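Quick one, probably user error.
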């Protein structure tokens, strides 16, 4: 809810605290999403730059203890849909 400074002053103190907490949680969530997207773009860039095959990528995922990419993810990376600058 967007309110003018005067209207905000009329809000009960506990409601202002709830709103501030909500804003802090949203900011933290957005920061996590942005960092995740940044890591994804870097990883996709490296995949293309290094010319990794599906087998290479699956081997790297096993070595890192992460699940292999899905067919949908692999296809998105292969046709360039996954890379957005």
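Nope, works fine. Designed sequence:
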């Amino acid at each position: 809810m967007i309110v003018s400074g005067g209207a905000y002053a009329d809000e009960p103190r506990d409601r202002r605290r709830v709103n501030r907490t909500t804003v802090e949680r949203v900011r933290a969530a957005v920061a996590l999403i942005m960092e995740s997207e940044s890591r994804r773009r870097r990883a996709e860039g490296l995949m293309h730059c290094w010319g990794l095959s599906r087998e290479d990528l699956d081997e790297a995922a096993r070595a890192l203890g992460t699940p292999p990419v899905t067919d949908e993810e692999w296809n998105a990376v292969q046709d360039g849909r996954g890379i957005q600058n």
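The helical segments are 5-9, 13-50, 54-64, 71-78.
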